[in-house]
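Job type: complex structure
Entries:
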Amino acid sequence: MKRLLYELTESWKIAAAQMAANKTRSFLTALGVIIGIVAVTLMGTAINGISVGFDKSMSVIGDDVLYIEQYPWSRMNDWWNYRDRKKIHTEYGDKINHQIAVTPNTNLMVAVPTMSLLRSVKFGDNSVDNVYILGTTADYALISTLDCSEGRFFNEIESRGGDEVCVVGYDVTDALFGGRSALDKRVLINGHAFKIIGTLSRQGTFLGLFSLDSIVVIPLPAFKKYFSAKSEADVRVKVRDKTHMLDARDELTGIMRRLRGLSPEQRDDFNINEQQAFKSTLDAVKATIAIAGLFITGLSLFVGAIGIMNITFVSVKERTKEIGTRKALGARRRTILLQFLIESTALCLVGGFIGLALAYLMCFGMASAFPSFPIRFSLGLVIASMIVSVLTGLISGIAPAWSASRLDPVTALRYE
Amino acid sequence: MLSAERDTMSRNSIHHPSPLVIDIENITKEYVMGEEIIHALRGVTLQIRRNEYLAIMGPSGSGKSTLMNMLGCLDTPTSGRYEFNGKDVSEMDGDELAEIRNREIGFVFQTFNLLPRSTSLRNVELPLIYAGIDPEEREQRAAAALAAVGLEDRLMHKPNELSGGQRQRVAIARALVNQPSIILADEPTGNLDSKTGEEIMALFENLYQQGNTVILVTHEADIARHARRTVHLRDGLIESDDVAPARRSPETAGVS
């Protein structure tokens, strides 16, 4: 046992000395592994980043919120099937809430109607265009992840009364007020004055597509009064227990069918959307990246492994006499086998480390270039790449190491 | 003083003959070369006792190298029996032979066969690593072996920083470090000038005087002259087995 330990230590020393003596050759040989590890790490980072960014965006939608809408979120290639449906009205919000109140053991918690438009917002000489103006009820605070950095969300009374108050997103506050406090200031939304009673903390972007901070939330009656009473609306319903999503969905479908007065043979003329619809779309994207990444990784690692196998064969050939000497001095087959296996593994490990370092630098560069794209360089990836490197080394080293261990000491000693 | 020492040793061995280290009985070795079968050894019987100083001579093709490979447990005979310290090694497999070589045989090669990028100390430590000796003891014993060949101030030198004679001394220290039963030297002075060669031969003489068993394989009569007993091979057979007349001792006479 001790002997094995000493042989292993010795083998690592030899491997290090070999690489130090043949720096260029070792580096060129390890290139395949380096590229492979960069590919696998970047792929993993991309998938991780997409997942993290997606989850963050999804949390804005809420994993326990059902959206009653005219169109489904996925499969919009047959949009004409949904075009002639009746619009969704904000009044359904109150009706559903009433239904929830009278249903014992309901799976639903609260329904919140919303309407939205893009409008410009002004304060003094400053102005922001295309701000997402959201009209809703006070209950919106219950179903969203919005969180006030200053002030508060509007209350039930302000909401029902349609007061000219508003809660503004980070981008809007920043553009209009810079570092100053926005509270109690009056902004003009499409020319109508609203008093700021709260500012929202930063949300980031939705899937990197648009900012979630370019938003102003106002009470629904005020929205209808000043903007459009007929603008598109949806109703968001929060579920009591997200483990009973399906039951909640069925219950809500039933309520909606009654509100719409559908007879049993008629199909639903509305859609109940949830976060899951996005998830399945994204899983397909992630799978595509993974397959492409695995293919590139596999190919470069394969080429790398062949390179390392080749160089290990060369190394065995070059050092045949040394192998003979070692055998004469008492090295057993195992000793020689381990020595060359460790040499190929060490080469791959060094390649792996260089690959990881490169991938890390690339991620760092990407993170600085595109700050909105969430990049996660995880410990799991580091461990995975190390395992891949070691496996590549072992697989590519086994054939030359085996041939070295089987060398006849007499022949090996005579080799020039 | 040296002769007095030798006399004491000789007197002792009359009454207590040294134990056999090598006991070879009728060994043959055949190689297949294409269609042809080459009979490298055709039936060699040889006994070597502890603390003998023996030279194996013969022209090329005489089976000298093959016999050396057998003695060094680098190869096994086609037929015949070979006992090393009472153990039958003729049927052993590769790893068992490696074990014997590691513990019982110290090799000295014509081309020194040192690891080029390792220091003297690490070169000498190598057999101890394969023997599973602790690092501290390894270093201590390697340093002692190097001191014994007069290289105590060259521990951290690499082979390319040493002269030919010094390299061969490192190799001899490496052969000695595991306290083997025999030291097997294959043309140890073949790559050295004659003056350095003589120094190396003096070192072997010294090792023999200290009680080691030394086997030289050479084709140079000048080198073989140092040994106390000379075995001549020709065509795979022992042609003669002489005890050097000037240094004749009853111990070796009894064997031949």
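Summary: Chain A touches chain B through 25 residues (CB under 8 Å). Residues 2-57+280-414 of chain A form one domain.
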